[in-house]
Amino acid sequence: MPNVLIVDDSATARMLVRRCLTICGYRADQTFEAEHGRAALDQLKAEGIDLVISDLNMPVMDEEELRAMGATAVIRKPLSPAALAAAISRMDGAAA
Amino acid sequence: MNAAEIDAQIIEPVVTEVLESTLFLAAEPDPSFDWEDGSLRWSTVDLHRPALGALVLATSAAEAEAIFTMLWAGERVADEGAVAGMIDELANAIAGQALAQLDPHQSPGLGLPDAGRGTLPPAAGERRYGFRLEDGTRLGVSLRALV
User: Fold this and answer.
1) Of the four listed, A4, A95, B23, B145, which is most buried by Cβ atoms within 10 Å?
2) ipTM computed for the complex
C-alpha cells in the first residue's frame, strides 16, 4: 500500500481521514500529516509519499494552487472508507 | 440563491448523513434545540456558491465536549480550541454537502469556519433546524441569508 500524506488544517479532519485509511488496511507508519499546503511540500521532500489526500479549503494554500499542482480526484467530505478506497483504486489504475 | 432558502428536504438529510458517518450515531430532526443556551459553542461558515449566506452549527458546551471525547476516543484532550476545531470541521462538512446538493455539477464555494460561543439571537432571513443524536445529544443548524 502507498504511503499517504493527509493535508488539512483541521486536526479533526485529519483524524477522520486517518480513521478511514485504517479501516482500509493502512498501517499507522504509512500515514503522514500536514496542516497546510506549504508544510505538505516539506513533507513530500522528506518522506516517501506516494499519495496526497488534501483538503481544498485551507489557509496558506488554497484550492486553486492545489489543483494547479495536479490534484486528480475530488471526494466530498465527510469521507467514507468505501469512497476513499474507490478513489485510491481508480488512481492506482490510472497510474498503472 | 439565498442560503435561507435551503429547506428541510435538503438540509435534514445532509446533517443526519454527516453526523452519522462521522460520529457513527443515528441522528434525526428535533426542533427542541435551545438557541438561547448561554453555553453554546458554534461555528459559522460563509456560503458563496451556489447559495449566498452562512451556515451555523451549534451545540452546548457540555455536549460539544462529549462529542469530542467520543469522536477522538481519548486520543486527544478536549480543550477549548480542540473542541472548537471539531465543531468547525463538522460545520464545514455540512456546509459543503448542502451546497453540493443544490448543484452537483458546480464546485461548492464556501469560506473558512469561524468559531464562536454564547447565545445565537435570531437573525433576519434565517431558518433554524434542530437535530438529536441517538445518545440524546442535541445540535442546531441555522441557515442565514446574506444581509
Assistant:
1) A4
2) 0.89
